[in-house]
């Protein structure tokens, strides 16, 4: 994990997103332990409160949970929740903007679909 201190995104958000990415990639399967707040703070030389804030976001979303005296664990169903969350973000961040721009350029729905298919085909050929 790389924390980008020059990034405009807060460090605690970067931590939460890194854990999410690791869960989706299978690095932390459901019901397995994630690094502790102390590990994050020592390894990345950040304030423990910052690491805690990032992990607490995931606790509030039901992605991770605390086992008292043991540590933080990936919740059952976390992958499904994360995929649903990321699909919504994908829609909000990309699809809505794509449709708005297509309408401004008077690109039809069928043309957009063809462009998407072309993008998929091109990507898989490389």
Provide a concise account of the structure shown.
The protein has five helices and two strands.
Overview of the structural elements:
- With 126 residues, this protein is mostly helical.
- It contains five helices and two strands, in the order H-H-H-E-E-H-H.
- It has two domains: 11-76, Orthogonal Bundle (Arc Repressor Mutant, subunit A), CATH 1.10.10; 79-125.
- GO terms for molecular function: DNA binding; DNA-binding transcription factor activity.
- This is HTH gntR-type domain-containing protein.
Describe the secondary-structure layout:
Blueprint: H1 11-25, H2 37-44, H3 48-60, E1 64-67, E2 71-74, H4 78-104, H5 109-125
Helix pairs in contact: 1-3, 2-3
GO molecular function: DNA binding; DNA-binding transcription factor activity
Pfam family, one: GntR
Keywords: DNA-binding, Transcription, Transcription regulation
Q: Give the terminus-to-terminus CA distance.
A: 27 Å
Q: Roughly what is the average pLDDT, rounded to an integer?
A: 91
In the CATH hierarchy, what is the class of the largest domain? Mainly Alpha
In total, the number of domains comes to 2
- What's the number of extended β-strand segments? 2
Instruction: State the CATH superfamily name of the largest domain.
Output: Winged helix-like DNA-binding domain superfamily/Winged helix DNA-binding domain
Which regions are unreliable across 5 or more consecutive residues at pLDDT < 50?
Answer: none
For the biggest sheet, the summary is: 2 strands, antiparallel
Structural class: mainly alpha
- Secondary-structure element sequence? HHHEEHH
Q: What is the beta-strand fraction?
A: 5-15%
Reported CATH architecture of the largest domain: Orthogonal Bundle
Structural shape: elongated
The main sheet orders its strands as 1-2
């Amino acid at each position: 994990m790389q924390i980008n201190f020059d990034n405009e995104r807060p460090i605690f958000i970067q931590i939460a997103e890194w854990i999410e990415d690791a869960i989706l990639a299978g690095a932390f399967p459901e019901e397995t332990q994630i690094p502790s707040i102390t590990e994050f703070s020592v390894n990345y030389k950040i304030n423990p409160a910052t690491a805690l804030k990032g992990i607490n976001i995931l606790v509030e979303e039901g992605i991770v949970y605390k086992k008292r005296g043991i540590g933080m664990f990936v919740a059952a169903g976390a992958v499904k929740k994360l995929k649903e969350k990321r699909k919504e973000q994908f829609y909000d961040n990309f699809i809505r903007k794509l449709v708005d721009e297509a309408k401004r350029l008077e690109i039809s729905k069928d043309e957009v679909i063809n462009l998407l298919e072309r993008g998929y085909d091109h990507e898989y050929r490389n």
